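Shipment paperwork, digital attachment
Item: protein structure file
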Amino acid sequence: MKYILGIESSCDDTSAAVIDERGVLLSNVIASQKVHEDFGGVVPELASRAHQQNIVPVVSEAIRQAGIDKNALSAIAFTRGPGLPGSLHVGTSFSKGLALALDVPLVDVNHLHGHVLAHFIKEDINTPVPEFPFLCLLVSGGNSQIVRVDAPTEMEIIGQTIDDAAGEAFDKCAKVMGLPYPGGPIIDRLASEGDAKRFRFSKPHIDGYNYSFSGLKTSFLYTLRDALKEDPDFIEKNKADLAASLQKTIVDILMDKFTKAIRDTGVKTIAIAGGVSANSAVRNAVAEYARRHRLTAFIPKRTFTTDNAAMIAVAGLYKYLAGDFCDITAPPFSRVII
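Attachment content:
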């Protein structure tokens, strides 16, 4: 049996996972960094330092939970980018050193490919996976993309944001409301108690399948600015309705372009991925659209929506099986497209 170790360190979570050659997940260990909450966002220097502290125990625990010896590993897969340079350097350097020590191939993984291929993580041999081709709505703090997937290593972006990402819109609007970081999950929770039709915010008109969220953020900010002049307690009194209206607007924007792409391509299988795919309204909207149009929808477990090494391991598995290895001198990269 072949075993792949995946290592993820693109931002502020240190993660390691082991899968076997069938794609069955044997372990997935994540060490999160709480220190960034005090700063209202990820501090790159603090993130890289925490990765240095966490990576050895996290990798050791992942191998232990998988029930194998490190010498049984067939390859080391790691996130090469995109992400924070300092964080990526920690994971890249460790992965190279471990691959050299064990004399096994090194496999570099595009972080965004990992999110899309999270749907191929199997918790047991019978776990269903998408059929090709399928369309994936990849939404996170840094990316909003519609990706056509024809094979594990054949992906094409057919739509993407021209400015801000959906996750960034959630977090920045939450910050304007005075909510803690990360704001997205708090908006989701508040929205369940609010009236989504109470407030109207700007929706952009962009050609093709591309997205824009900068106008929405400006509209939200101006709404709060004007209302606070009349009532200093406006946000507190309307917090749930603001959250619900904001969330509905973002989901409407996402679904407008995604459904257009689905109709135009004629695919029968759709999926969502990335941190924002944990949002309950996004999940419900995609599932309901699939139900009404008799499509097959893949909605990831919330465990696999955020940054995790299981998705890096499964993406690395496909490259390993194709013999697509990484040179030991290859540097990490902070920015890239699929």
